[in-house]
Design brief:
Blueprint: H1 2-18, H2 26-38, E1 44-48, E2 54-58, E3 64-66, H3 72-80, E4 86-89, H4 91-99, H5 102-105, E5 117-118, E6 121-122, H6 124-129, E7 134-138, H7 142-150, E8 155-158, H8 167-181, H9 189-208, E9 216-220, E10 222-223, E11 228-229, H10 236-243, E12 247-248, H11 264-270, E13 274-277, H12 285-289, H13 302-305, E14 309-311, H14 326-337, H15 347-359, H16 365-372
Parallel strand pairs: 3-4, 3-7, 7-8, 9-12, 9-13, 13-14
Antiparallel strand pairs: 1-2, 5-6, 10-11
């Protein structure tokens, strides 16, 4: 279909930039070798991270620790086509790797150390003992940056909030930073995903631009018998709604990020057409259909009555956040919200083509099915 032709054009463009043809003369090989020597990659590079700190880091670091930028372990693994250089990450990231497809594609991710946390705090002594070349941390945590530096560690801040919760822009900014640190990989897998996500976004926007009766969508970021958390206008749920031409019913909730707690009374007032549940919670659509969470009664909510409650896909990571799966999640969400408008989209076929053409991975029917009907396990944070 048209969207998948876009993949081919992007892959072709990258291939042409990289140079094609397998046969080369001794002269051209010698010339390329001389050129490579003349432009040898430096041992270190000075960058400006997302906390606006100037940091000098080793290029192509061999030992990397990743703190609470939870999608980054999956993203870096696909970017490098290996998890070998990741020495530590948080349990939140590992649980998604185990429950999703990442551990099937890259089994070595399961060997990464996750014993670097004391509750919600990083065990700096345990982290330092791993002797990482670089530690990627949440750029919003200035105190953590100072602790890392005090421990003699090279810290690079990565932000999930700096780019207005635009999943594509955020992903591209992450890639830009990684491209500076990993020059051997610059402009390859990462940029293809970002480019394709932008093209899918544009095509969806073109289809929904004339929609007058916008569907009302409620995101359940986290939900259990203690709290219900949604996405206000200052979280990724707003971007997803805007991307597919829907209305975020919780856009006026006066809280950002994962702080937007709501009540059933508010849900009744909004009466959403569609409910999207993330993989940052164990809750499933059946829990709403069967009123299985606490004393909440969902039976009068339109989305529940119409059986339009969906669990977000779980690919190489939780798809609510920026990541490798963003292009295909855009397709999936557009079809979930506007099934008639996107009746021609074959998500299962497209995701197979996407993984195959961009990453050389052949997904089985069972793997695709598991991605789009994820179990509860990924919702665990520890």
């Amino acid at each position: 279909m048209k969207l998948m032709k876009r993949i081919c054009s992007i892959v072709l463009a990258v291939t042409m930039l990289a140079g094609c043809g397998t046969a080369s003369t001794a002269k051209s090989t010698a010339s390329a070798s001389a050129s490579a020597s003349a432009t040898a990659i430096p041992a270190e590079v000075t960058i400006t991270d997302h906390a606006d700190r100037t940091v000098t880091v080793p290029t192509d670091p061999k030992k990397v620790a990743i703190l609470d930028i939870y999608p980054l372990p999956s993203l870096l693994t696909v970017y490098l086509n290996s998890a070998d250089s990741i020495v530590a990450m948080e349990p939140v990231s590992m649980n998604a790797a185990k429950a999703g497809i990442l551990s099937q594609l890259y089994p070595d991710i399961l060997n990464v150390n996750t014993d670097i946390m004391n509750g919600d705090a990083v065990n700096m002594e345990a982290l330092a003992a791993l002797q990482p070349d670089v530690v990627f941390y949440n750029a919003a945590k200035k105190d953590e940056a100072q602790q890392l530096e005090d421990a003699g560690l090279t810290a690079v801040g990565i932000s999930a909030t700096k780019f207005n919760y635009d999943a594509i822009k955020t992903y591209q900014e992450w890639m830009s930073l990684l491209d500076q640190i990993y020059p051997d990989y610059a402009g390859k897998r990462g940029s293809q995903t970002g480019d394709f996500a932008s093209q899918v976004y544009s095509e969806i926007q073109d289809k929904v631009k004339d929609v007058t009766d916008k569907q009302k969508v409620l995101f359940l970021y986290q939900y259990d018998d203690t709290a219900m958390v949604t996405s206000s206008s200052k979280f990724f749920g707003q971007w997803w709604c805007d991307a597919v031409g829907a209305t975020n019913v919780a856009q006026d909730v006066p809280a950002d990020n994962m702080n937007a707690k709501i009540t059933m009374e508010q849900v009744y007032e909004w009466n959403p057409d569609v409910i999207i549940i993330t993989n940052f919670t164990k809750t499933t659509p059946d829990d709403l259909y069967n009123n299985a969470i606490g004393s909440d009664d969902w039976s009068s909510v339109k989305a529940v009555q119409d059986k339009r409650v969906y669990k977000m896909p779980l690919g190489v990571y939780r798809t609510y956040t920026p990541g490798i799966d963003t292009p295909m999640t855009l397709e999936w969400l557009a079809q979930a919200v506007y099934p008639d408008l996107f009746s021609d989209v074959d998500v299962a076929s497209d995701v197979k083509d996407y993984y195959n053409k961009l990453f050389g991975v052949t997904l089985t029917d069972d793997q695709v099915s598991a991605m789009y009907t994820p179990n509860r396990d990924a919702g665990s944070w520890n």
